[in-house]
Amino acid sequence: MFKLIKKITFFKFIALFVLLSACSPRSGTVVADPLEPLNRRVHALNKGLDSNILSPVSKGYSYVMPDAVEDSVSNFASNLSLPGTVVNNVLQLDIPAAANNTVRFVVNSTIGLAGLFDPSESIGLAGRDTDFGQTLQRWGVVEGAYVEIPLFGPSNMRDGMGIFVDMMLDPTSSVLKPTMSSYRSWAGIGAILQKRQIYGDQIDEVLYDSADSYAQSRLVYLQNRRFQLKDNPSDAYIDPYAEFE
Amino acid sequence: MLTSILMQNLNKLTVRRRFFLFGVASVVVTGPAFALDSDSARRLVDQLVAEINQATNSGGPQTKLIAAFESIFEQYADVDIISRSSLGPRARTASSEELEAFSRVFRGYIARKYGKRFMEYIGSAIVVKNTTNRGKFFEVGASVQVEGAEPFEVYFRVSDRSGKKLFFDIIIEGISLLSSERVEMGALLDERNGDIGRLTKDLASLG
Question: Which of A241, A244, A245 has the most B C-beta neighbours within 10 Å, making it the best mutation to test the interface with B?
Answer without folding.
Answer: A241
